[in-house]
Specification:
- With 112 residues, this protein is of the alpha+beta class.
- 29% of the residues lie in helices and 17% in strands.
- It has two domains: 1-50, Arc Repressor Mutant, subunit A; 52-105, Ferric-uptake regulator, C-terminal dimerisarion domain (Dna Ligase, domain 1).
- It has three helices and five strands; from the N terminus they run H-H-E-E-E-E-E-H.
- The chain is flat, with a radius of gyration of 17 Å.
Length: 112
């Protein structure tokens, strides 16, 4: 779904600059129509799954991203030990690891 949101925006705005596409996606994010996700070491991604506080699994080898439901119940699903006076609305959690395909490729390598 990640690249499809960007690709669809590019299709709609054909002939427009990449900056224009990002401007529209920023407006969509602000309006709650898409969700922005900034995985460490990767380009910004946008998704249509909004309205919940789900998390992400990220493969550190191939960069695959998979949604995973909230760790504990409803948003914010994680509570800091001290809010320092903040009202917490959401919590971002990214689980880093190897996807099944990359894990299988590593397992298939001959032993040194």
């Amino acid at each position: 779904m990640w690249s499809k949101v960007f690709a669809k925006a590019q299709d709609i705005l054909s002939g427009s600059s990449t900056q224009a596409v990002y401007g529209i996606l920023a407006a969509f994010t602000g309006a709650g129509l898409v969700r922005r996700f900034d995985p460490p070491g990767s380009a910004t991604l946008f998704e249509c799954r909004v309205g919940d506080n789900h998390h992400h699994l990220v493969c550190v080898q191939c960069g695959a991203v998979q949604d995973v439901d909230c760790v504990i119940g409803a948003a914010p699903c994680l509570t800091p030990s001290d809010t320092a006076g903040f009202t917490v609305f959401s919590a971002e959690v990214t689980f880093n690891g190897l996807c099944r395909q990359c894990r299988n490729q590593v397992a298939a390598l001959p032993a040194p």
